[in-house]
TrEMBL record:
SUPFAM superfamilies: Thiolase-like (SSF53901). This is 3-oxoacyl-[acyl-carrier-protein] synthase 2. GO terms for molecular function: 3-oxoacyl-[acyl-carrier-protein] synthase activity. Pathway: Lipid metabolism; fatty acid biosynthesis. Its EC number is 2.3.1.179. Belongs to the thiolase-like superfamily. Beta-ketoacyl-ACP synthases family. Residues 2-409 form the Ketosynthase family 3 (KS3) domain. The keyword Transferase applies.
Length: 410
């Protein structure tokens, strides 16, 4: 018999807030976390806006010595993990830590450290590179550092599937527990690449929005959308086998019941415009959950605010759900946070779990112009109280990666 898996702890650092409570309050109020880039001088770039993490002091949260040896993406991950672990109320003295694992992802890893150390090498010689350069940059180090922080001795890994990374992390962690390999997992993702090299690279691809108006920049499903807004931060969840959680009297946010993952096998950056891969992925997740497509009430969409993604994802939802697509509520919280790349799915997973728990569907804010290709109920501008029982969260990544998670109200 497959074991049931629940969410017992959550933590986040993102453009809306540096805790789950602050983030959820901002989501409920429909706040926008996007603003002018302050991390560096943007005078040489067309892109001026991002969803930056604000008032974050890594030294205060993690200690000055430890934080100095981490890239910013790992700092975000460890800060979010600290909140999630405390929120779950785990007593490591009472746990079998051999059955407690960690899957924490990053789409890009320590790019800011790579850029800084490369400049140092060019100027001062490559023998002056930091001895921490390699462990700071590799994409698995957030998972490694979190495992070290809490003594997690089960499976520890990092999935790298671009913007689908943290949905894959949550899904893989869910399956590990459901199938009996671990009793509990820390999972999620982190990203910290609001820096000239990354912004320049995405700008050259014409993937980023160049608007200077924060309220008309990240506008998923809106006819005037023309690129995503870079975000940063981390989302971390603690998943546990249901009886394990109940035995220690843990509070439960929601249940994870299904996971689907596949590939478009179509193009390195563009989604399949016919939505085939996304449609099949959502169907896989719902089948894995053992429910009907008509049981789904709400979709937290990938909804990046790019022309191709939003039209393709809308078509995928219609192909997967048929007539039920028009009864679904679909929203993109990237309208508030921007696109957190490898951390997006985890932050959106936290928001989706809270939507179920509180019976509140987040809005797609700053929505003005209807697009004929995007004709679903995107919960425009104002969030809704709604009695939702099952929600699905989508994440799609460069390389054609698709990952969908199904959550149920507990």
């Amino acid at each position: 018999m497959k074991r049931r898996v629940v969410i017992t702890g959550m933590g986040t650092v993102n453009p809306l807030g540096n805790s789950v409570e602050d983030t959820w309050n901002a989501v409920r109020e429909g706040k926008c976390g996007i603003g002018p880039i302050t991390h560096f001088d943007t005078s040489e770039l067309k892109v001026k806006l991002a969803g930056e993490v604000k008032n974050f002091d890594a030294a205060e949260i993690l200690g000055p010595k430890e934080s100095k040896r981490m890239d910013v993406y790992t700092q975000y991950a460890c800060a979010a993990a600290k909140e999630a672990f405390a929120d779950a109320g785990i007593d490591v003295e009472k746990e079998n830590m051999d059955r407690f694992g960690c899957i924490v992802s990053s789409g890009i890893g320590g790019l800011s450290t790579i850029a800084t150390e490369h400049s140092k090498g060019e100027e001062k010689g490559y023998s002056r590179i930091s001895p921490y350069f390699i462990p700071m940059t590799i994409s698995n180090m957030a998972a490694g550092q979190i495992a070290i922080m809490f003594g997690l001795k089960g499976m520890c890994t990092s999935v790298v599937t671009a913007c689908a990374s943290s949905n894959n992390a949550i899904g893989d962690a869910f399956h590990r527990i459901r199938d009996g390999y671990e009793d509990a997992m820390v999972c999620g993702g982190a990203e910290g690449v609001i820096m000239p090299l990354a912004i320049g690279g995405f700008q050259s691809m014409k993937a980023l929005c160049t608007s200077e108006n924060p309220n008309r920049a990240s506008i998923p499903f809106d006819k005037e959308r023309h690129g995503f807004v870079m975000g940063e931060g981390a989302g971390i969840l603690v998943l546990e086998e249901l009886e394990h959680a109940q035995a220690r009297g843990a509070k439960i946010y929601a249940e994870v019941i299904g996971y689907g993952s596949n590939c478009d096998a179509y193009h390195i950056t563009a989604p399949n415009p016919e939505g085939e891969g996304g449609a099949k992925c959502m169907a896989l997740a719902v089948a894995d959950a053992g429910i009907e497509m008509t049981d789904v009430d709400y979709i937290n969409a990938h909804g990046t605010s790019t022309s191709l993604n939003d039209a393709g994802e809308t078509l995928a939802i219609k192909k997967a759900f048929g007539d039920h697509a028009y009864k679904l509520m679909v929203s993109s919280t990237k309208s508030m946070t921007g696109h957190l790349l490898g951390a997006a799915g985890a932050v959106e997973g936290i928001i989706t779990a809270l939507a179920l728990k509180d019976g509140f569907v987040p809005a797609t804010i700053n929505y003005l112009e209807k697009d004929e290709a995007c004709d679903l109920d995107y919960v425009p501008n104002i969030g809704r109280k709604a009695d939702i029982n099952v929600a699905l969260s989508n994440a799609l990544g460069f390389g054609g990666h698709n990952a969908s998670i199904v959550f149920r109200r507990f």
